[in-house]
UniProtKB/TrEMBL annotation:
Residues 24-277 form the EAL domain. It comes from Pseudoalteromonas maricaloris. It comes from the Bacteria. This is EAL domain-containing protein.
Amino acid sequence: RAKSAQSSSACIFEDNMQTEFQMKYNVEQDLRGAIERQELELAFQPIVDIQLPKVVSLEALIRWPTAKFTSNPQEFITIAEESKLIEPLGKWIIERAITTLKEVNTKLGYPVRLAINLSPLQLEDISLPAYINDCLKRIDIDGSLFTFELTETALLTESKRVSSSLQRIKELGCKIALDDFGTGYSSISHLLNYPIDIVKVDKSLTDRIGVEERGKRIFLGLVNMLKSLQLSIIVEGVENYQQYYVCKEVKVDKIQGYYFSSPISEKNILRTIKSLNKELVR
Ligand code: C2E
Ligand code: MG
Ligand code: MG
Ligand code: MG
């Protein structure tokens, strides 16, 4: 009896593997077609400086409106990495984002920055900095307006290629941000080992600053440490007045979150920035 129980559970396991494999394959095929047909889009989320107060930056976030299986960026970006599709997709994101910022800044009347997420594999590609430089030159916009955001997983391997890519990207005038800070297990060591300018405090920490004293204290301690390292801080996932108020209290200026704006489509950027700026000074 034990034996048959075992083999049936092995079967279920294989079944799950089969389905997962099939699913990944389906998403990969769907994504390949979508990239070719240029069906992906970028959304842009404003980052506000509450001291000034105005919108000072945008973050480009990938969207896949025609997806048949999953439109979750976390999920399909992972599959894109596993299947090498991240190379064309990553390049498209960079070019599209830079082009959009050029248009926005031409019409807005003052320059805002733009943050672009990079996946670990993109950083392993030694031709990435030259590609970014080509885009900047061709589109004719200053590199100092751009931030490239990386998560810990990109830095975990401690590769020479990653270090030299980061160095060369910084030589273009761009800044480097460590994304999702506070979620990984060695975040702090990355601040020693890599040329990081900006730290983005993860939503999971923000979520707790208004609900429990300990959450607030961890947040305060973290902010003070980052400040003493002279790092810029952006707090992510601010959704309500209470969280906003804590940021204001501890003099964190840059905030991103639904409290100000969710990610918006390209055609709504100018309108959203202008109306947000009006609300902010009120
Ligand atoms: P991220 O870079 O940390 O981006 C922030 C995520 O939090 C975005 O989710 C954004 O929509 C969401 N968010 C912002 N403010 C709030 C808030 O107040 N409340 C809540 N609940 N969520 C908020 P999204 O767009 O689903 O992206 C998820 C992740 O997927 C990103 O996390 C990033 O790691 C990755 N990703 C997105 N776009 C790209 C891309 O173009 N390239 C790469 N390599 N990764 C990307
Ligand atoms: Mg990000
Ligand atoms: Mg983040
Ligand atoms: Mg994230």
